[in-house]
Amino acid sequence: MRTKDNEKIGLAGFAEVLRKKPLKLFIATAVGGLGMWIVAGLWHNLLLPIINENATAHHEGLGIGLIAYIILSFLLVYLYLQINKKNNIFLEGVKIGIIVGVLWVFPHGLVMAGTHNTSIIYEIKNTLYHMVEQGIGGVIIAGILQERIISQ
Q: pTM for this one?
């Protein structure tokens, strides 16, 4: 979050926003998480099996997956409030989503490539997909939070 002078506010500022606007933060977290979960479901269960004959639709762990996306969404909300520069809401949301997509997936993917002999090319493609998926989540969150609304 930023002050009117565009100075960053840390964890205390986030706690203040949480105290003043808990419903808005809850809605941004829930809708952002649900949105990314839906995108993931559409990709992994509907589109990917059509374009990749080795991929199959799977429905196990959907509830745990939703919880994971809500946690991820909360991280996106926190980061959005910390580094939003009040620029284009779409671009700010995409930027936050891309950062989180890379940080969330790529290091783990490299570990999988090294320890389980998965393809590094696959891990790079997976990271690119997650940059898009979390970018969509970031846009949803940015649209809900719109810093100018929270500052009021």
A: 0.80
Distance CA 33, CA 112 (A): 25
Determine the distance from the C-alpha atom of residue 92 to the mean position of all C-alpha atoms in its chain, rounded to a whole number: 12
Determine the Cα–Cα distance for residues 67 and 14; give it in Å rounded to an integer: 22
Q: What is the enclosing helix (H) or strand (E) of 17?
A: helix 11-20
Residues listed for the chain: 152
Q: What is the pLDDT of residues 100-140, one digit of tens each?
A: 999 989 999 999 999 999 899 989 999 999 999 999 999 99
The amino acid at 148: R
7 vs 27: CA distance, rounded Å: 25
Q: What is the mean pLDDT of residues 43-55?
A: 85
Helix%, strand%, coil% for the chain, nearest 5? 80, 0, 20
Please, are residues 73 and 29 in contact by the beta-carbon 8 Å criterion?
yes
